[in-house]
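Supplementary Methods, section 5.1.

A reviewer requested that the exact input to the structure prediction be made available. We therefore reproduce it here, unchanged from the version used in the analyses.
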Amino acid sequence: MSDELTLLAQAGAAALVTAMATDAWQETRDTVAGLFRRGRRSAVATQLDGGAELVRDSAVPDEVRRALYGYWAQELAALLRQDPSCRAALARLAVDLPAGAPGDRPARQTNTARDRGTVYAVQHGTLHVNAPEKQAAED
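The structure derived from this sequence is encoded token-by-token as follows.
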């Protein structure tokens, strides 16, 4: 298998396991199950649901995602070897649900200050702020 198809299978697997137990799960599940031949489709859907349940019930979901990632990367690589026509749909999945390797995704954070407020934020680490004293409002 070419490096390009291997990378596509890995990107698809990362998007797949990242979507498990999220709002994007049902659509992702249906897309991936639909890539497999009719005879295998329901078995794959059952496996996908089992994996999503493991993620949802885990105290450490990213560890479960990492374990499932390897399995699904292999499954999707085998699928691409058997049916290269799945390439476009898998590429769309990987683009629509960008994800690095499970657990390597950057955390997202939004901070908003309103009405002359100030936001001091840090995502990983420690933040020390020596804020100037506010001046008393002049009468």
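Residues 61-82 form the longest helix (22 residues). These observations are discussed further in the main text.
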